[in-house]
Amino acid sequence: MWFAVITLFPEMFEAITSYGISGRAAKRDLVQLTCINPRDFAEGNYRRVDERPFGGGPGMVMMAEPLAKAIKHAKQLAMQAGKNQVPVVYMSPQGKTLNEQAVKEFVEYDGLIILCGRYEGVDERLIQKYVDQEWSIGDYVLSGGELPAMVLLDSVIRRLPDAMSDMQSAEQDSFVDGLLDCPQYTKPDCFEGLDVPEVLKSGHHLNIEKWRFLQRYQRTLDRRPELVEKFELTKQKKKWLKKQDSSES
Hints:
Layout: E1 2-6, H1 14-18, H2 20-27, E2 32-36, E3 50-51, E4 61-62, H3 64-80, E5 88-97, H4 100-107, E6 111-116, H5 124-130, E7 133-136, H6 146-157, H7 167-171, E8 190-191, E9 194-195, H8 205-223, H9 225-230, H10 235-248
Parallel strand pairs: 1-2, 1-6, 5-6, 5-7
Antiparallel strand pairs: 3-4, 8-9
């Protein structure tokens, strides 16, 4: 998959191309990541990309012109690479909150052009003219869009075919089917007086599956009850919940 990131700090994205699952995907050429610095498209000796906001107020605003030129350059690179479906995504606290369903949809594109804002944000006219989607990673503010962009990149790359050696692991992650993940355990059997649940050592796959589902359901109910409301239960899982309720009553 092809990515272009428009950022004032391209060196930050070595974290994506050099480490972990995304780094291995980049080394195997499953991912092509290009960083574009908008300063390269700014005018004047100082290559300024920011100015004070009209109407006054604190901070600076990223200027539309150098960002527009950077986006146009990214689109040209995408065309040269034979990538057609490549939306421009702006990482912004005002965007929709990123979720697993959105990540699945991103994977279907040929690539992404990701715009990282800084300061007080970017000129609204740039958003109106050039941005296709705005996404946030949560209801809080960061110093810039680079960390959210890396979150988006990592979440998309790990879902690409062949990016992970064990794709079943990705399918069982939190949020993939709407529920949080179950508790996980490894050796030793006993740690500081706490034992691994016996069912996980039983080798009985159906009982393990049942235990994991019930743990996931209860954990989601306790921590993110709004997710449970949207979760569709199969007949089998309804039976498991009903038996658990009757055994507890």
